[in-house]
Amino acid sequence: MSVYKVKSARRIDLVTLGTQLLLWGYAAIVLGPLLLVVNDALRPSRDIFRNPLGLATSISFRSFVKAWERANFNVYFFNSLVITVAAVLLATAVSALAGYMLGRYRFRGSALLSAYFLAGLMLPFRLAIVPLFLLLNRLGLVDTRIGLILVYAATGIPFSIFILSSFFRQLPQELSEAARIDGAGEFAIFGRIMLPLVRPALATVVVFQFVPLWNDFFFPLVLLRSTNKWTLPVGMTRFFGEFQTDWSTLFAGLIIMTLPLIVIFLLATKQIIAGLTAGIGK
Amino acid sequence: MSFVQRLSRRKQPARARGVGRGAPSWEIVAVFLLPAFLLYTVFMIWPLAQSFYFSLFEFKGLARGAFVGLRNFRELFTRYPVNEQLPRAFLHNIYFFVGTMLVQNTLGLLFAKLLYKPRFGKRFFQTVYTMPYLISALVVGYLWSLMLNPLFGPVNRLLKAVGLGALARPWLGDPATALPAIILANAWQWVGFPMLLFSAGLANIGEDLREAARIDGASRWRLFWSIELPLLLPVIGIVTVLTFIGNFNVFGIVWAMGGVNGEPAGATDVLGLVFYRTAFRGGVDAFGLASALAVLMFVLIFGVSMVMVNLFRRWEEGLK
C-alpha cells in the first residue's frame, strides 16, 4: 500500500495542479466579464473606447444616474418590482393552500390533481401566447400590470405546489391531531401550526419564482405596450438601441437590472441551490 | 425523486408518515384548492389547450374566422417566408442542443467531479460558477455582444494582447461563428445548473461502493467510468431532458445577440424567434398560423422529452 502511494505521489501532484488551474481558470472566465462590467460602468465611455482593457482611474457614478433618469430605468425598475413581488406573493399564497391540502390528505382525485399541477413544470408555456393574448384582450387586461401579474402567478404555481406539498407531507401527524383535539379548525391548523413549519420551503419557493419573473422578457414584450408600464427587460431592448455608443451607461444599466438579484443571491444562496436541485438526493 | 421521474413512474409513493387519514369536508377542500386551480387553469392550461383548437381556424386580426382544417399547418411549409425560416431555425435549435450537451453539460459534470471531494474553496467555486444563472438571459446576451464587439470588445483586444490577434474576428457578424458564440454565452450562464445536479447525484453514490472499488484496485478513471457514470444515469437523463426543453425554448439571449431576425442573415434564427415573428409581426391572418406553429413546437418539445424520459428509464433498468 505504502509503496503504491510513494510511486504515485508525483502523478497526484500533477493532477492536483491541473485541477486547481482548471478551477481558477474557469472562475476567471466567469468573474472577468462581471468585473469588467463594474469597472466600465464606473469610467466614462471615452476611456472605454480609448483603452478597452484599462482600469477605471477615478470612480464616477454619473452613468448610473444617467441610466436611472434619462433612460427611464426608474420607471422600469418600479414596474418590475411591483409586478414581480405581487405575482410571487399571489402564487405563493394560493400554492401554500393547495400544497397543504394535496400534501396532507388523500381524497378522491387528489393524485390526479397533483399530477395536473405537476404537469405544468414540463409545459412550454410561452407557446400559449396567442390564446392568452386574446383572453387578456377580452378581459381588458392587455397592457395592464394586473394582466401580467396574473399570468406570472399562474406560471409559478406548479413549482411552488411541487415543493410545498412535499414539505407539508413530511410534517408529523401528531401535531395536527393534537391541535384538532384542542378544537382547532382546518384553517387554524394550516395557518398557525403548519405554515410556520414550512418556512424554509416558502423561502425557496419565493426566491425561485422571483428570479425568472424578474428576468422574463417574452411576456412583457407581448403584453405591455405603453413604455410607462414596461419592465426592465423590455426597457433594456430600447435602451440598447438608444445608447449604442455610450457603453458606460449600457454597463450601468446592466448592473441596475441585476442588482436586486445579487442581493437575493447573497441572502439566499442556500435556497437557490435547494431549488435548483429540488428532488435530487434526500 | 425528481419531477421528471415522478411523471414517468405512475406508482404512488409510499404513504408518508404525516399524511392524514380522514380528509376534511369537500367545502373546505375546495376552499384550499380552488384559488390555485382557477388561476393555473384559466391562465395556463386553458390557453395552452386553446392553441390546439385555434390552429384549425382562420384569423382576421384578433377575430376568429372560419374553420379551415389543416390549412394553417400546410401554409407553415408552403408560404414564404416562414417555409424557409422554419427548417433553418429547427436545425439551429438542434445545434444549440448538441452544442450545449457537449460543452455546458460536460463541463458541469467535470466541475462536479472536481469539486466532489471536500477541497479548499469548494463552496467558493460552486457559488461563482452558479452565479450567472441569476442574470437575465437578455442581460447575458447584451453583455457578451459588447464583449465580442469587433472594434472595442475586450475579447478581441485580449487575443491581440496575448499574440493571438489572428484569431480575432467579428464573432457575431460572421455567420460561421455567431451561433457557436451564442451557445457558449448560454453555457457560460447555465453551467452551474448541471454542476449542482451532478454534485447531488455524486453525493448520493455510497462511499462504501467507491471504497470497495478502490480495494479491488480500480483506478480513478475506472472508478469514474464503471461505477460513477452508470450510477449517474438518472441525473444525466434529467439534465438531458431539461437541456432539451430549455434549448428549444431559447429566446432572450438570441434576441440580444442576434436581434429579432437572428442576424447575421438568419444564421442565429431559432424556433422561438420564428414563433414570435409569425405571431406578432406576421400580418392580419398571423394568429392562425402562429397557433399551428405553437402546436407543432408543443408536440415536438413535449413528445421528444417524453420519449427521452422513457429511453433513459429503460436504459437505467437495463443496467440493473
Question: How would you describe the overall organization of this protein?
Answer:
- The complex is a heterodimer of chains A (about 280) and B (about 325).
- Chain A has a domain at about 70-240: MetI-like (MetI-like fold, Orthogonal Bundle).
- Chain A has helices spanning about 1-40, 45-50, 60-70, 75-105, 110-120, 130-140, 145-170, 175-180, 185-195, 200-215, 220-225, 230-240, 245-275.
- Chain A has 13 helices and no strands.
- With about 280 residues, chain A is mostly helical.
- Helix content of chain A is about 75%, strand content about 0%.
- Chain B has about 325 residues and is mainly α.
- Chain B has one domain (about 85-320): MetI-like (MetI-like fold, Orthogonal Bundle), CATH 1.10.3720.
- In chain B, about 70% of the residues lie in helices and about 5% in strands.
- Chain B is built from 15 helices and two strands.
- Chain B has a two-stranded antiparallel sheet.
- The two termini of chain B are about 20 Å apart.
- Classes of the chains: A mainly alpha (about 280), B mainly alpha (about 325).
What is the tally of beta strands of chain A?
A: 0
| Coarse morphology of chain B | globular
Given helix and strand content, the structural type of chain A is: mainly alpha
**Count of separate structural domains of chain B:** 1
The side-by-side strand order for the widest beta sheet of chain B comes to 1-2
- The CATH homologous superfamily of the domain at 72-242 in chain A corresponds to MetI-like
In brief:
The complex is a heterodimer of chains A (282) and B (320). Chain A contains 13 helices and no strands. Chain A has 282 residues and is mostly helical.
